[in-house]
Write a structure and sequence with these properties.
The chain folds into 2 domains: 179 residues, Quinone Oxidoreductase, Chain A, domain 1 (Alpha-Beta Complex); 136 residues, Rossmann fold (3-Layer(aba) Sandwich). It contains 12 helices and 18 strands.
Length: 352
């Protein structure tokens, strides 16, 4: 085995990433070594690439970036009992401690000691990654690698969409980045009556329709509040998926929420957001939920069942790129001209 591997690294406090040779990490007794077959690029990775205020406050460096991946187990530690060499796996990117109050209460997704791969510890934009056994998930049989790598971000959307019923509901999805697009497909699969998607990127609105949205509206062209209230006969949305952190999007979608409606916040604002709490929440008797990460392992089980039952994510994978061409991947995401970009550290397989 070579002692070095290719890795995409944030070397210091400045924009950009560099592709370098890094030592292959050693494994501890409770860890698993994984050959990365595919890795997908997230908005978080773009924050790190751009080195914005959020990244400066959160990201260790030097650091291998990336937190969404799938791969093959190539080595297991002496204490590992649930996985074997040759198995296909993905992983929970929030490395939870397992001992804090929240982990012991079954809420490892809000672990007070978590370390996120690609943010606080080395990630998966590399030929190999080492993960604790407690964070590894066996991938459903027959799942193509370009879909298997999406399980981590898909889990966010499963958490949003399945935090309450959408059966027979009118659903408004604010923001059609990948998590918003995933949530459309899930809501459709789970029996939503109608789904309206909102975004400023026409490229992503077309993807929203391909994934099952009944309407795809651009707020630059359409008054979202008046159009949505007219569409629903003045009743509003039973459920809102707040997948955008944009302040105007949050304000408009709260105004669209029905009396007794269910608002699920996932998109993170870059600053404080002002809302009319009395009009849009209290006097409506609205329910507000904050959603973060994936419930371990409930969300992963729900996600696997959805995939096994035919949840079709193929429209969202718009680009497949070799890791060495990472600049193209980040340019596409920066410009919003893509769905999900999948990179291959060990070469694009012939079947993809």
């Amino acid at each position: 085995m070579s002692e070095q591997m290719k890795a995409l690294v944030k070397e210091g406090p400045r924009p950009g990433l560099v592709l370098v040779e890094r030592p292959i990490p050693k494994i501890e007794s409770d860890e698993i070594r994984i050959r990365v077959e595919a890795t997908s690029v997230c908005g978080t990775d773009l924050h790190i690439y751009n080195w914005d205020t959020w990244a400066q406050s959160k990201v260790a460096q030097p650091l291998i970036v990336g937190h969404e991946f799938c791969g093959e187990v190539i080595e297991v530690g002496s204490a590992v009992t649930r996985f074997s060499v040759g198995e296909r796996v993905a992983a929970e990117s929030h490395v939870f401690c397992g001992t804090c109050r929240y982990c012991r209460e079954g809420q490892a997704h809000i672990c007070e000691n978590e370390k996120i791969i690609g943010v606080q510890r080395d990630g998966c934009f590399a030929e190999q990654i080492v993960m604790p056994e407690r964070c590894v998930w066996k991938t459903p049989e027959g799942l193509p690698v370009e879909i298997a790598t999406l399980q981590e971000p898909l889990g966010n959307s499963v958490h949003v969409a399945m935090s309450g019923s959408v059966v027979g509901k009118d659903v408004l999805v604010m923001g059609c980045g990948p998590t918003g697009l995933f949530s459309i497909a899930i809501a459709k699969k789970c029996g939503a009556r109608s789904i309206i998607a909102v975004d400023v990127q026409s490229y992503r609105l077309e993807l929203a329709k391909a994934l099952g949205a009944d309407g795809a509206w651009n707020p630059v062209e359409v008054d979202i509040v008046s159009e949505y209230m007219e569409k629903t006969g003045g009743m509003g949305a039973d459920v809102v998926f707040g997948m955008s952190g944009n302040g105007k999007a949050i304000e408009d979608s709260l105004r669209c929420l029905s009396r007794g409606g269910d608002y699920r916040f996932f998109g993170v604002p870059s600053d404080r957001v002002s809302v009319d709490l009395a009009r849009d929440v209290i006097f409506k008797g609205a329910r507000l939920q904050g959603i973060i990460g994936r419930k371990v392992w409930d969300t992963w089980k729900d996600m696997s069942r959805l995939l096994e039952e035919g949840l079709d994510l193929s429209p969202i994978v718009t680009h497949k790129i070799d890791l060495e061409d990472y600049e193209t991947a980040f340019k596409l995401i920066q410009e919003g001209q893509c769905g999900k970009v999948v990179m291959f550290p060990n070469g694009i397989p012939a079947s993809s």
